Amino acid sequence: MTRPVRTLALRWAVLVVCVAFAFAPTWIRLAEEADSGAVTAYVFVFPVLAVVAGQGTARRREGELPIHDRQTDLIVGGIGALLALAVQALWLPRYSDQYALLHIDLAAVVLFTLSGAIMLFGLRPVGQFWPILLLAFAMSPMLYRLLAVSMGGSRFAYGMVLVLVAGVAGAIAVGRTRGRAALGFLVTVAVGAAVLQLVLVLDPTIDIVLLQLIPTVGASAATGTLFYLFARRGRSKRPLGRPVGAPSVKSARSAVITLVVVAVALVTRPLPAPPPPVDTVGPPGVVAAALAAPTGWRLLDDETYPWVRSYFGQRSSLVRQELQAAVGNPEWDVRGRPRTVVVDTLTTTNAASLAVYPERTLYHLASTRTSTALPVELGHGVTASLYTSVDDTLLLTWTKLVFDWVRDGVFQRITVISVDNHDPDATFPEPTPSMASNLSAVFAVFLRGNTIVGDDDPDFDDRGLLASVGASLVDAQFPAGAEDPR
To answer: Which of 255, 317, 355, 391 could form a disulfide linkage to 289, CB 3.0–4.6 angstroms apart?
Structure first.
């Protein structure tokens, strides 16, 4: 092994170890999510695609002069490393309730990796790989889900998005010309789509990691190999056809020290706590998409929302039931009018999707402020969370009672909603397909912090109403004489 090869290998090892150490909690959380069936497993596939694209780019770098400015390398790399630390320490906590959906810490991973590469190898050489860097920043978990949902949200859609990414990686790998890049993209996508369809036919329930890995990496690697052999027809097929040049950055001691210090600072930053698992045992018997109406309440209307399958799986459902009290209660309305509530029942077999899409993301609430939640005991071992949402545009306050349970491997999240307008035409928040619940609220939190969407002085006037209807609703789902799950 020549000295340049040893130097490059050592520096790559330092970079990989620092990235692995600095974001160890992130890798552990992603592995846990992948084990539970979350689609963020694609994060472990992307580095392989980056290698496929990177080796093609590296082969096209010939005759470069070893020009660099070491001070510029350290300044740019150091600023990027500090930005990664700022994302992890300042930006990530603002979206703690949407951590599984946004995974902002992955932006910090890309920033830290890019910064480390600039300090270890130089800004000029790293800049040659800008298409891969752009692809890495673009492939955020939210964008991945957004594209997959827009394609129907099926397992094929989630696999096909990565096949398209593999096509881009293949185009970068073989793109000596625009024509070759376009051909590389088309060949990779065609092969990947065919393999993806074959895999789903052979095993429709294949693990999501394998579904993402096999078509994408297989197609991009096959395309890259095919183009490599075609370009070297009649010539030597040796992988290293020319000697490896020495890195333009001669000394990397200061870079290593900086990386280690920032990595230690990053690994000490805690991630948002994961949501509690859905382990409350629900009522026995056949799982129904809608719940039985509780005693003292009558069903006025019901509605289903087919769009929910794109988010929570093809076997999921969302049903809204409008219930009205049989008689008025002065404690709930001073004029004795019968109160009306709505019950939204989300049913899914994918528990991971419940963590990705919190209950609030089911509703498009553009200008609401949300209170902290209070625990409410509903009996049968069920504990609900009660909170308010104030709409400053409609001048309405909604009170929500949320609980979930698992029934024979099927997970249900139930949301009971009341509104402080007691008239028959009162407006309830409508379940709406929305990737992040409300993009304007996301940007508002980014600019002004969580106080912009928080309600520090909540009014829980409907706490008694929802506690009563919630307890009755839970009790109505358990057959008479059924064994209490506790």
So the answer is: 317
